[in-house]
Design a protein that fits this description.
2 domains, Rossmann fold, 22% strand, 476 residues, signal, alpha/beta, elongated
C-alpha cells in the first residue's frame, strides 16, 4: 500500500524529482485540457530554482496552452554548467512524464548563464524550442535547428542591448528573406525592464548586481515578459488557428516596437564601418570645413593595420574650375580587448583616431582669411549630439531626468606624432558624470611636412549612445 504522505505528494500541483545533486521541481498546469507544452527553466549564475516559480506561474495564467513547468536547480555552486545540464534536462523530462505530461513539446528557458549553456546543449537535444532571458545564443539564429525567442531587457545592466543588437541585425536580414523569421526567431527589446526582473529573488544592491533601475514594477515586468513568452509558444505549438494568428500579430508588433529601440544602436554602429571606410571621419571632416562643408568631397580609409595608419597623411586638393575640395582622411579604431566576449564591457570603440585636414588648411586652400581652429573636444560634443538625436524620446527623457551627464574636458595637446599615438583618449567616471578628454595634434598650415594636419583621438557616437542608454543610468 502506498503511504498516505506519498499520495499527498502525487496529488499536489508541484513535486520534486532528483538525480544526484541536480533536481527539478515540477509545477503542473492550471488548465485541464488543451495543447501541452513544458517550460524547463535553467537559472542564472548563482540563482536558485525557486526564484523562477513566480514568472512561471504568470506565464501559466497568461497562456491558453496547458503549460507544464520544470524548475531545475542544485547545480554545483549554483552555477549551471555543460557537465550537469544534460542530466538536469533528462530528470526534468522524466519528472514531467511521471507527473502526467503526454506531449513531447519541451522548451528550454534559460536566464543569463542558464541560457548560455542551454544554447549549446539545445542544438542536438530533444528540446523543441528555446527561450533566452537576458542572454544570447552564441550561434546564428537562422541556422539554429529549433525556434528561439530572445528576450532583451532595455535596461539590462549585465547583458547589454548593444550586444543583443547583433542578433536583431541577424533577424532583420532573415526577415528580408522571409517574414516567418519574426515568428521563429524573434528578438524582443522589452522597454523599461532590467536583468533581475526575469526572476524573483531577495533584493541585492544594484552596485552588487551591476543591474540598472527599471522603469516598471516587478509585477508589471512579469506580465510583459509572460505576454511575450505566450505569443512565442502559442505561435509555435498551438493547434487553434485563430490563437496562432493573434500571437503572430503580437510578434509582428513586438518586432516593430523592438526595431524602434534597436535602431539608434544600429544607426550609430553604421557610422563606424562601411566597407573599408569610417563614415564618422567624413562627418568630422565636413564639420571642420565649417562654412565650406557643402563643397568638400571627403574620402576615407579605415585602417586595420596601425603601421599603415601611421604612414598616412591626409591630402587636400582644391579644383578652381569646380570650386570644390577633395580631402582624403583616415581612421583607426581601438576596442576594449575582450569586447566581443565579455558581456559587461562597452561594445562601442574605446577610442577612435582620426587624421583630418584642419579648418585653417581648407580656408587657406580656398584663399580665405585665417580662422580659429576647431578643437577635437568639439568632435566629442558632436558625437553626443548625434547620439542624443538618434535616441528614442523615451531614452532621451530618461537620460535627462536620471542619467549622469558627459563632461568634455579641454584637449590634451600633443607636440609630436609619436606623443599623439601613445596618448590614449582619457575617460573617467565620478559623481559628476563621464569625463572625456580628447587628444589633439595640430600642425600649422605653413608647416613644411605636416601643413594643416589635424589629428584627433576621440570617442565614437556609438560610445556616446551607450553612455546615454546604459552606463549613465547606473548607481554611482
Amino acid at each position: 500500500m502506498i503511504p498516505f504522505e506519498q499520495i499527498l505528494v502525487l496529488l499536489s500541483t508541484s513535486f520534486l524529482v532528483a538525480s544526484a545533486k541536480v533536481s527539478s521541481e515540477i509545477i503542473q498546469p492550471i488548465r485541464s485540457s488543451g495543447d501541452e507544452v513544458a517550460l524547463i527553466f535553467v537559472p542564472g549564475a548563482y540563482q536558485k530554482a525557486e526564484y523562477y516559480s513566480e514568472i512561471a506561474g504568470v506565464i501559466q495564467e497568461t497562456s491558453q496552452l496547458r503549460v507544464w513547468v520544470a524548475l531545475t536547480g542544485g547545480y554545483d555552486s549554483d552555477y549551471p554548467n555543460p557537465r550537469e545540464l544534460p542530466g538536469a534536462i533528462d530528470d526534468a523530462v522524466s519528472g514531467l512524464k511521471q507527473a502526467g505530461m503526454v506531449s513531447d513539446f519541451y522548451v528550454g528557458v534559460g536566464h543569463g548563464r542558464g541560457g548560455i549553456v542551454l544554447g549549446t546543449y539545445a542544438r542536438d537535444s530533444g528540446l523543441k524550442a528555446l527561450i533566452l532571458m537576458g542572454c544570447i545564443l552564441n550561434d546564428t539564429l537562422s541556422d539554429f535547428p529549433v525556434p528561439v525567442l530572445t528576450l532583451a531587457s532595455e535596461l539590462d545592466g549585465l547583458v547589454r542591448v548593444t550586444l543583443v543588437v547583433d542578433y536583431f541585425e541577424q533577424l532583420l536580414d532573415s526577415v528580408s528573406q522571409s517574414k516567418d523569421a519574426i515568428y521563429r526567431t524573434p528578438v524582443i527589446n522589452i522597454q523599461g525592464t532590467n536583468h533581475i526582473q526575469f526572476e524573483t529573488r531577495p533584493p541585492l544592491p544594484r552596485a552588487v548586481t551591476r543591474d540598472i533601475k527599471s522603469d516598471v514594477s516587478d509585477t508589471e515586468a512579469r506580465k510583459i515578459i509572460s505576454r511575450h513568452v505566450n505569443s512565442f509558444i502559442t505561435a509555435t505549438f498551438r493547434s487553434v488557428a485563430g490563437d496562432v494568428e493573434v500571437s503572430r500579430v503580437e510578434l509582428e508588433n513586438d518586432f516593430i516596437e523592438s526595431d524602434k529601440r534597436f535602431k539608434p544602436i544600429l544607426d550609430m554602429k553604421a557610422l563606424q564601418v562601411e566597407g573599408d571606410s569610417f563614415p564618422w571621419a567624413s562627418i568630422a571632416q565636413r564639420y571642420f570645413a565649417g562654412e565650406f562643408d557643402n563643397i568638400v568631397e571627403v574620402n576615407n580609409t579605415l585602417y586595420g593595420d596601425i603601421e599603415e595608419f601611421i604612414k598616412f597623411k591626409p591630402p587636400i586638393r582644391y579644383d578652381v574650375a569646380s570650386g570644390r575640395f577633395e580631402v582624403h582622411t583616415s581612421a583607426f579604431i581601438e576596442y576594449e580587448g575582450d569586447y566581443q566576449t565579455n558581456q559587461r564591457v562597452e561594445k562601442s570603440p574605446a577610442e577612435i583616431r582620426l587624421k583630418l585636414k584642419s579648418k585653417g588648411a581648407i580656408h587657406s586652400a580656398r584663399g580665405a582669411a585665417p580662422v580659429e581652429e576647431w578643437s577635437c573636444r568639439s568632435l566629442n560634443e558632436l558625437a553626443l549630439e548625434y547620439a542624443l538625436n538618434s535616441s528614442t524620446s523615451h531614452a532621451r527623457d530618461r537620460y535627462h531626468s536620471r542619467g549622469r551627464p558627459m563632461v568634455f574636458e579641454d584637449d590634451i595637446v600633443a607636440t609630436s606624432g609619436q606623443e599623439w599615438l601613445s596618448t590614449p583618449l582619457t575617460i573617467w567616471r565620478d559623481a559628476d558624470g563621464l569625463h572625456v578628454q580628447a587628444v589633439a595634434l595640430l600642425a600649422a598650415v605653413d608647416s613644411p611636412m605636416y601643413g594643416g594636419m589635424h589629428y584627433c583621438c576621440v570617442m565614437a557616437p556609438s560610445q556616446a549612445l551607450e553612455w546615454i542608454i546604459i552606463d549613465s543610468l547606473r548607481d554611482y
